[in-house]
Design goal:
1 helix; AAA family ATPase
């Protein structure tokens, strides 16, 4: 079975978070999130990685740099 590092549940919605030590992301990094996205309550999934850019992988799957968690304007 596919696993996700962290699954947050709030008001019936799920958000998945994968944490990677790499500075690049690839398809394999999203496998658990893709599996989780098949659930109707899934809202969004994130791969947190050591790179520099916020990247949209699919409609509701994103790769975000760890540093973005501390930057207020990262998502503007």
């Amino acid at each position: 079975p596919k696993e996700v590092d962290l699954v947050l549940s709030f008001r019936g919605n799920l958000v998945g978070v994968e944490v990677k030590s790499s500075s690049m992301v690839n398809r394999n990094d999203f496998k658990g999130l893709v599996a989780l996205s098949q659930k109707p309550e899934f809202k969004r999934g994130y791969v947190v990685y050591m790179g520099q850019k916020i990247m949209q992988w699919e409609d509701n799957l994103w790769a975000i740099p760890l540093s973005a968690l501390w930057e207020c304007d990262a998502f503007e």
